[in-house]
Design brief:
The complex is a heterodimer of chains A (130) and B (702).
Chain A: H1 2-9, E1 13-17, H2 21-33, E2 37-42, H3 45-55, E3 59-63, H4 71-81, E4 87-92, H5 96-104, E5 109-113, H6 117-128
Parallel strand pairs in A: 1-2, 1-3, 3-4, 4-5
Helix pairs in contact in A: 3-4
Chain B: H1 2-36, H2 40-59, H3 63-81, H4 89-111, H5 121-137, E1 174-182, H6 189-200, E2 204-210, H7 219-226, E3 228-234, H8 238-246, E4 251-259, H9 261-269, H10 286-291, H11 294-304, H12 319-340, H13 351-375, E5 376-378, H14 380-397, E6 401-406, E7 411-413, H15 414-435, H16 439-444, E8 451-460, E9 463-470, H17 477-486, H18 499-504, H19 527-536, E10 540-546, E11 550-558, E12 563-571, E13 574-579, E14 583-587, E15 594-596, E16 602-606, E17 609-615, H20 616-619, E18 633-639, E19 642-648, E20 650-658, H21 664-670, E21 675-680, E22 686-690, H22 692-701
Parallel strand pairs in B: 6-8, 13-22, 17-19
Antiparallel strand pairs in B: 1-3, 1-4, 2-3, 5-7, 8-9, 9-11, 10-11, 12-13, 12-20, 14-18, 15-16, 16-17, 18-19, 21-22
Helix pairs in contact in B: 1-2, 1-4, 1-14, 2-3, 3-4, 3-5, 6-7, 12-13, 14-15, 15-19
The chains are: A alpha/beta (130), B alpha+beta (702).
């Protein structure tokens, strides 16, 4: 029961930004299973930025390669207006350069595809305490 | 349980999305190849598609697919950064198509629950060699090392965060040494280290770290093995620094110790040691600079463009559920008729009931239309697939042809699409293989070198007509006749057959004029299979051809399969239903209008034209009192531009009917002619649906 309470306290409202429906679903199911709330989903950076200010989530999972506006630009836009935004970059091997830039622009952290459910959940929960 | 369930769902979504992406990619490639060449937009998009497939496949543990996608991604990364023209377009598209085919095949296996065991190593190797060649040609960056995407610029060189100690402030109070170990398998350790350094930059000064170069990805290995070592000075105390460092996500272990100034001094001065950061005057002022960079500006202008327009609210639904919904709506239509036309109500004055009934009827129709429209899918995807077939076949057969697509936006029922996809593919293959001549032959015949295959769809009433037309050599009348005679497929003397009838002989089972079986068409599956496939969905095939100028094959397909407007008629005690759409007119003839031709066939003259009469009661052997034409009713129906007058006792009424196909054993063993199925009427009685095409054809033959 204690574990349950702790988890309740740490429940995050999450915004998922990813152009791939597969990844959005994967992230949503994984986080929902851990008791977090998916407050919104967006298919590209531009939509992500708009949704961010609409729903003010605790955590944003941000894909990098997306049409219209990529994840890095979206991160910059979000960070410009909200310095405390918690953005988790979802990256893939080979994107080191961009990930570094994302960190520079204030991404809290990043995970690298493929990742396990546990890793994603842990990362999001740790971000909550930051 | 939950996991299993969600994995199942994930697999479905993965398969669905990957298939969509592959289709998109294929289209893109065909466009690039045909017209535009590889524009930078196209390359970007291809890159993005491969990237998405790579990521999703890796998440699903389909590593072979992921690796292949990765190498294709690398290839397009190279192309994007290469400044000069792409030399060998067709080689690139061949590579990509090969890749697409591989992934498609694997996805197919995954769909069928077989393990995806294909081996892409050879292809990956081929792509790698090609990338190498590209890089040798021009100074390409190595994609494996620095993959920067779109606006990521090289402006971040080796940033070492190091505040200027000579700015007049009091020297920092503490110095620390820290060793960080990251969690195993968290990947990109160097960037994680970079992130730590980044977080410390505002609260520390004189920060040094080992490995010194954390921009280069090779340092990841080093950090993985030996941990990330740092030395820095700061005003903050041990507890505060520890707190900051402990916030690092993916941190497995932290060793933090305070060191004295001397040791710090020693480290900072000892520049000769290879693992210490070289001092530079670079300031950490990248932020201000970066905000003015053109990439940011660009994204701002892009922001004016659609925010919501591109985003549709689309829900994907299992087709099985739609099928069930369709069935239920059908049942509801029947049930509604049962209520409204209930025999118990006969002869009663029910004004309010009638009003309510009308309203129910209206809503039922709307629901029905809505369900139908949900099931309607445009032919675009089916048609576009043919592009690829034409391309591949042209390459293999060494012919030149282009595919012209007209009316691809025409919509048909989802079920119909599934049934026509294979036949269409077969027809297009046939057209290329047997129809279109080689470029030389074509030139000799005074035709353009390029053959043209036209794929056209259009609606006509309750049918959709799909034509596959080629401008090739046409069908050989004599050859078909000989073959048909040889196989005993024709009984009539040759002179009685019209050209059209002869051409349509190729639809009969066991007919194939091609002596040699080629790789593409004649695989033992002939036109008869096409015809049978189309017939199972209530359609028909018409073959037309002109020597030397080409062949046209038309598929006539019902728009939807399940619910049609029908006219109920009665013969004796039996009820029949005719699809309203095929009825031209109905009337009670005058005594003098009918006559008998020398062969004993009854005919009727309507506005100067003669039409044969079919007495349903005779045709189906039904006892009835109405035998004289003047006592019953004549219904003129039309199919394929042929008309027939059906004689019945009386019209019963018009209503929407749900077509139920006859049970297989009745169809196969009884072989009742001219029936398309049956339906339930409002009073619960069963009515047989007449197949007009079958009746007319059967009538002509007899």
């Amino acid at each position: 029961m204690i574990g349950y309470n702790v988890r309740c306290n740490l429940m995050a409202r999450v915004l998922i930004v990813d152009d791939a429906a597969f990844m959005r679903t994967k992230i949503r199911l994984t986080l929902e299973k851990a008791g977090h709330e998916i407050a919104g989903e967006a298919e590209n950076g531009l939509e992500g930025v708009a949704k961010y200010f609409e729903i003010k989530p605790d955590v944003v999972t941000m894909d990098i390669t997306m049409p219209v506006m990529n994840g890095l630009e979206a991160l910059k836009e979000i960070k410009k207006a909200d310095k405390n935004a918690r953005v988790l970059m979802i990256s893939a091997m080979g994107q080191e350069g961009i990930v570094r830039e994302a960190v520079m622009y204030g991404a809290k952290t990043f995970i690298v595809k493929p990742f396990t459910d546990e890793r994603l959940i842990q990362t999001v929960e740790k971000m909550l305490s930051l | 349980m939950y996991d299993e369930y969600s994995n199942e769902t994930m697999l479905d979504i993965y398969v669905f999305e990957t298939e969509q992406l592959l289709e998109q990619l294929e289209q893109l490639m065909l466009n690039c190849e045909k017209e535009t060449g590889f524009t930078s937009e196209a390359i970007d998009e291809i890159f993005r598609i491969m990237h998405t497939i790579k990521g999703s496949s890796a998440m699903m543990m389909f590593n072979d697919i992921s690796n292949l996608a990765h190498s294709m991604e690398d290839l397009f990364y190279c192309l994007r950064n290469g400044k000069n023209e792409i030399a060998d377009n067709s080689f690139i598209s061949d590579l990509v198509f090969e890749g697409i085919d591989f992934i498609k095949e694997e996805i197919e296996k995954i769909k069928n629950g077989i393990s995806a065991d294909g081996n892409p190593t050879a292809l990956i190797e081929k792509i790698k060699i090609f990338i190498k060649d590209l890089q040798n040609d021009v100074q390409f960056p190595d994609p494996g090392i620095k993959k920067a995407i779109v606006e990521t610029t090289g402006s971040i060189a080796q940033d070492t965060y190091k505040s200027n100690p000579e700015d007049g402030r009091a020297p920092p109070k503490h110095a620390f040494k820290a060793v960080l170990h990251f969690e195993e398998g968290c990947e990109m350790e160097n960037i994680r280290a970079y992130s730590v350094v980044h977080n410390l930059k505002d609260i520390t000064s004189d920060l040094f770290h080992i490995p010194e170069n954390i921009i280069d990805n090779d340092s990841s290995k080093d950090i993985k093995q030996n941990g990330f070592h740092m030395c820095f000075t700061t005003d903050l105390g041990y507890g505060e620094i520890q707190e900051v460092l402990m916030q690092t996500i993916f941190l497995r272990e932290l060793i933090l110790e305070e060191i004295d100034k001397e040791e710090m001094e020693r480290i900072s001065k000892n520049k000769s040691k290879p693992y210490l950061v070289s001092e530079s005057d670079e300031k950490p002022g990248i932020h201000g600079e970066k905000l003015n960079n053109p990439g940011t500006q660009k994204s701002k202008t892009e922001r004016e463009t659609p925010l919501s327009s591109g985003h549709q609210n689309i829900l994907s639904v299992d087709v099985a559920k739609l099928d069930r919904l369709m069935d239920l709506v059908g049942e509801m239509v029947i049930a509604e008729a049962m209520v409204i036309q209930n025999p118990d109500l006969a002869g009663m004055e029910l004004t309010n009931f009638q009003k309510a009934a009308q309203r129910l009827d209206k809503i039922t129709k709307e629901i029905q239309d809505m369900v139908m429209s949900i099931r309607m899918v445009s032919l675009t995807a089916t048609f576009q697939k043919m592009n690829r077939i034409v391309r591949d076949m042209c390459k293999k057969l060494d012919k030149e042809a282009k595919l012209v697509i007209i009316g691809e936006e025409t919509e048909v029922d989802k079920n119909v699409i599934e049934h026509i996809s294979d036949p269409l593919m077969h027809l297009v293959r046939n057209a290329l293989d047997h129809g279109i001549e080689s470029a030389e032959e074509r030139e000799a015949a005074g035709k353009p070198r390029y053959g043209t295959i036209t794929l056209e769809a259009k609606s006509s009433g309750s049918d959709v007509l799909i034509t596959v037309r080629d401008d090739g050599k046409g069908l050989e009348r004599e050859k078909i006749l000989n073959k048909a005679r040889e196989k005993g497929l024709i009984s009539k003397s040759d002179s009685d057959l019209t050209d059209r009838e002869i051409y349509n002989l190729i639809l009969l089972p066991g007919f194939s004029t091609k002596d040699n079986v080629t790789e593409f068409s004649g695989r033992g599956v002939g036109m008869d299979v096409v015809a049978r496939n189309i017939e199972t969905i209530g359609g028909s095939v018409i073959v037309d051809s002109a020597p030397k100028s080409g062949t046209t094959i038309t598929l006539k397909i019902p728009l939807t399969l399940a619910i049609v407007d029908g006219m109920n008629i009665r013969v004796g005690k039996s009820l029949f239903t005719l699809p309203t759409i095929s009825i031209k007119e109905s009337f009670r003839p005058n005594a003098g209008d009918t006559f008998t031709d020398p062969e004993g066939n009854e005919m009727i003259m309507v506005r100067g034209n003669c039409y044969p009469i079919l007495r349903l009661h005779e045709y189906y052997n039904i006892a009835t009192d109405v035998i004289d034409f003047t006592e019953g009713i004549i219904i003129m129906v039309e199919h394929d531009e042929k008309a027939l007058c059906i004689f019945a006792d009386e019209l019963v009424g018009q209503q929407q009917i749900v077509v139920k196909s006859l049970p297989r054993y009745i169809r196969d063993f009884k072989k009742i002619k001219g029936l398309a199925g049956c339906t339930l009427l409002g009073d619960g009685s069963i009515s047989l649906i007449l197949d007009i095409g079958g009746l007319i054809y059967g009538w002509n033959v007899n």
